C-alpha cells in the first residue's frame, strides 16, 4: 500500500464529484453547478474570429507561450482591466489556467503547512480546496449583508500567530450572493493596513451586475491599491467567455508575480496558447463588451424568475438574498436544519442544489444551501423550485 | 516585506526565463527550446475538424468538464494508448494540463517536504521543478548509453530512508537523447520490485522514433505493468499535436488516480475543454496517425542535418549521441569544461543552447550541453553548429 502525502489527505474526497454526477443527470433539474448556460456561449463569434487570424498567429496557438501569458493577450487584457480602473501599470498581470489556478499559485506562494489562512464563512469551495492542498489552517469569518464582519476579522488579526492570507469574494459572492458595501470595504482596508496580511480579492463575477447604479460599489479594492496592503486581484474569463478555455488572471505586485510565475512553471509551464489567442481576439474585436452586456440581461432574467418562484413557494422562515448580479441565491433555514437531508428528498423529487456545509471552512454548518440560476431556463426554474420548497417544508415544517 | 513559502524559495529563479528571452531573439539561432517546429503544426486540419463538429460539441468546448477529462477524449485516447499495448482497462486515465501538470500532481500526491526522490542525472528540468516545488530532496542517478546505472540505483534503494518516487524518461531522453535498452528496463523492473517505490515513466517523445526496428525497444514498462510496482505512465499531446493545447495524461492505478484527481481539482478544476474537444476530433478522424508519421520523417531529417554538422565541425574530444528519435543531442565536453561560458561566447556569435547544469539535480555538473534540432531548418543548423563548435574550441582548445 502506497503512502500518500499529507496534503492530499486533507482534501475532501468524492463529495463534489457525486454532486456533479447528480447534476448532470438529464432527469434532474440542477441548481447545483456554477456553470454558465451552454446556450449563451459565443460559439459562432469565436469560430469566425479564429478563422480570420493570420497563419502566424494560428501557429502560435499550437506552440508553448511564455509562462506569464502571451504578450498580445497581456496587452489586450491590460487594456480591458485598465478601463475598470485597475492599476495595471504599477502591478503585473499573470495569465493562469482558470482563476482556480490563480488561487492555487497564491496559496503555494504564501502558505507553509499549518499556516493560518482567513476566509469568509461561507467561502468559495475552490478557494477552500486550494488552501487545503497547501495544508493551511483555515479560519472562517462570518459575512453579513454588507460583507465580512469586521470585529471578528479584527479578533483574528490580533491573534499572536500572524495569518498568512485573507481571501474574499466581495462582488456577487459565491455562494452567498452578496455585494460588499462601500463602507465595509473602507473598514476592511483600514483593518488590514499595518497587519502585513496579503489580501486576495476574487472578482470572478463583478462584470455580471444587474443594475447600473451598482457600478461604483463594484469598484475593486485593487483599483484603490491602498498603501501598505498587498492586494492580489484575481479574475476569470469563465463567466465572460467560457470556463472551457481555462483562462483566468491575477494582477499583483511585482515581487508576488515573480514567485507565482516560478510556481506556475513547475505546475503547468504555461496557460493554453490556443485559448489565449481566442480570448485575445475576443477582446480586440470589441465583441467581449457586447457579449457581457447580453449575458448580464439574460442572467438578470433568470435571477428574477428564481426570486419570483422562491417568493411564491418558500415558507416564510427561509431567508435569502435577492441577487443584484452573479449566479447565486443563498438560502438560510432555521437553526438546526440539515440541508443534506433536504437535498436527498429534493433529488427524489427531481431537483438538486448544494448543501451549505460544502462552503463551510469547517465542513459543518448546514442550515444553508446554494441555488444557482445561471444554467436554467425560467421554465426549469418554475418547475424545480417547488420541488425544493416542498422538501424544505417536509423537513423543517 | 512579505514572507513567502518555503516551497517557492526552492525554485530556481530567472535562469530559464533569461534563456527563453535569448532563444526568442530573431538574430539568434536557437537550439535551446524543446519546442516543436511552428511550421509543422496541423493548423488547417484542426480548423476544419472544429468547424465540422455539431453545435452541442462546440458548446461543450466552452464549458467546464469533469476533472479527469472529457469522457469522449478519455475514450478515444484510451483506444490510442491501447493500440500501443498499454493496460488502459486495469488502470485509469487522467487528462492533465500538459504532462508537466501530470508530474506536478504526482509530486504533490506522493511527496512531503524533505522526502527523498530519485531522478536520472541528467534529468528533464520540468520534472526537477515539479519535485522541487513539493520540497523533495532530489538524488540524481547517472545514466549511461542504455539507461539508469542499476548498481547506483540499488545503492539508493537500499538506504534506510525510503525514496518516495523514481522518475525516468526512457524513450528519447530529455536532455540526454538516449533510448533505454530492453535489458536495462528488465533490470530496472527487477530492482524496483519489492522496493515499494512508485515509478514515473515519462513517455513524451516515444512516438517520434526514426527507425521501425526500435519499436520493440519503445514498448513502455507500463505495458508490462509488472507486478508489485506502481507504474505511473505519463504522456503528452505536446509533441504529437501541439504544446499550446496544454494537454497531457497519466495512466495510473485507481488509488493513485483518485488522489491526483483531488489535487487537480484544487489546482485548476479541469483541463481546457476547448482543446480536449480538438484533440478528441484529431484522434477520431485518424489524422493523428498520419500527422505523427509525417513529423517523424521531418525530425529525422533535422536530426541528420545536425549530426552531419557536428561530425564536420566538432573537435574529436566532444562526445554525443546520434539520436534515434525525439528532439535532442547531448554533448559531453572534457571534464572541467564550463558550458555556461561556452554559451556566452556562442550567443555573441549568434547561436544558443542549454548548458548541462540546468539538468543536473544539484545544478552543478556543467561539462555537458543540450542541442535541440526540432525547431530548426537544415539551413539554420548548418549555420548555427559551426558557431557553437568555434565557441567550444575557443574555451576547450
How would you describe what is shown here?
The structure is a homodimer of 397-residue chains. Chain A is an alpha/beta fold and 397 residues long. The first copy, chain A, folds into two domains: 6-42 and 289-396, Aspartate Aminotransferase, domain 1 (Alpha-Beta Complex); 64-285, Aspartate Aminotransferase, domain 2, CATH 3.40.640.10. Helices cover 43% and strands 15% of the residues of chain A. Chain A has 15 helices and 14 strands. Chain A has an eight-stranded mixed beta sheet with strand order 2-9-8-7-6-3-4-5, sandwiched between helices. In chain A, strands 10-11-14-13 form a four-stranded antiparallel beta sheet. In chain A, α9 (182-192) links the parallel β6 (165-168) and β7 (199-202). In chain A, α8 packs parallel to α9 (182-192). The radius of gyration of chain A is 21 Å and the shape is globular. The model of chain A has no long low-confidence stretch (mean pLDDT 95). At the A-B interface, α1, α2, α3, α4 and α6 of A face α1, α2, α3, α4 and α6 of B. Chains A, B: This is Putative transcriptional regulator, GntR family. Chains A, B: Homodimer. Chains A, B: GO terms for molecular function: pyridoxal phosphate binding; transaminase activity. Chains A, B: Keywords: Aminotransferase, Pyridoxal phosphate, Transferase. Chains A, B: Belongs to the class-I pyridoxal-phosphate-dependent aminotransferase family.
Amino acid at each position: 500500500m502506497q503512502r500518500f502525502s499529507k496534503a492530499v489527505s486533507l482534501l475532501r474526497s468524492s463529495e463534489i464529484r457525486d454532486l456533479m454526477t447528480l447534476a448532470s443527470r438529464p432527469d434532474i433539474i440542477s441548481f447545483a453547478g456554477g456553470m454558465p448556460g451552454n446556450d449563451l456561449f459565443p460559439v459562432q463569434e469565436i469560430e469566425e474570429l479564429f478563422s480570420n487570424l493570420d497563419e502566424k498567429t494560428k501557429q502560435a496557438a499550437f506552440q508553448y507561450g511564455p509562462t506569464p501569458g502571451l504578450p498580445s493577450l497581456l496587452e489586450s487584457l491590460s487594456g480591458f482591466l485598465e478601463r475598470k480602473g485597475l492599476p495595471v501599470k504599477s502591478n503585473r498581470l499573470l495569465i493562469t489556467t482558470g482563476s482556480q489556478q490563480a488561487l492555487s499559485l497564491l496559496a503555494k506562494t504564501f502558505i507553509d503547512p499549518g499556516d493560518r489562512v482567513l476566509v469568509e464563512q461561507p467561502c468559495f469551495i475552490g478557494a477552500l480546496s486550494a488552501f487545503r492542498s497547501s495544508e493551511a489552517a483555515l479560519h472562517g469569518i462570518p459575512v453579513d449583508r454588507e460583507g465580512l464582519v469586521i470585529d471578528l476579522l479584527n479578533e483574528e488579526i490580533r491573534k499572536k500567530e500572524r495569518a498568512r492570507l485573507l481571501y474574499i469574494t466581495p462582488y456577487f459572492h459565491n455562494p452567498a450572493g452578496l455585494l460588499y458595501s462601500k463602507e465595509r470595504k473602507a473598514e476592511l482596508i483600514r483593518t488590514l493596513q499595518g497587519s502585513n496580511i496579503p489580501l486576495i480579492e476574487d472578482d470572478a463575477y463583478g462584470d455580471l451586475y444587474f443594475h447600473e447604479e451598482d457600478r461604483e460599489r463594484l469598484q475593486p479594492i485593487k483599483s484603490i491599491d491602498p498603501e501598505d496592503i498587498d492586494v492580489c486581484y484575481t479574475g476569470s474569463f469563465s463567466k465572460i467567455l467560457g470556463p472551457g478555455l481555462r483562462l483566468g488572471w491575477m494582477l499583483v505586485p511585482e515581487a508576488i508575480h515573480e514567485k507565482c510565475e516560478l510556481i506556475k512553471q513547475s505546475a503547468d509551464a504555461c496557460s493554453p496558447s490556443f485559448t489565449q489567442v481566442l480570448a485575445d481576439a475576443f477582446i480586440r474585436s470589441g465583441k467581449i463588451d457586447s457579449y457581457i452586456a447580453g449575458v448580464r440581461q439574460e442572467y438578470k432574467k433568470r435571477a428574477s424568475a428564481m426570486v419570483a418562484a422562491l417568493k411564491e413557494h418558500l415558507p416564510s422562515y427561509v431567508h435569502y438574498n435577492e441577487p443584484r448580479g452573479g449566479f447565486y441565491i443563498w438560502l438560510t433555514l432555521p437553526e438546526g436544519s440539515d440541508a443534506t437531508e433536504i437535498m436527498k428528498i429534493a433529488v427524489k423529487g427531481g431537483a438538486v442544489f448544494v448543501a451549505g456545509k460544502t462552503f463551510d471552512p469547517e465542513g459543518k454548518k448546514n442550515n444553508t444551501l446554494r441555488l444557482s440560476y445561471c444554467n436554467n431556463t425560467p421554465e426549469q426554474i418554475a418547475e424545480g423550485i417547488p420541488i425544493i420548497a416542498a422538501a424544505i417544508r417536509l423537513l423543517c415544517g
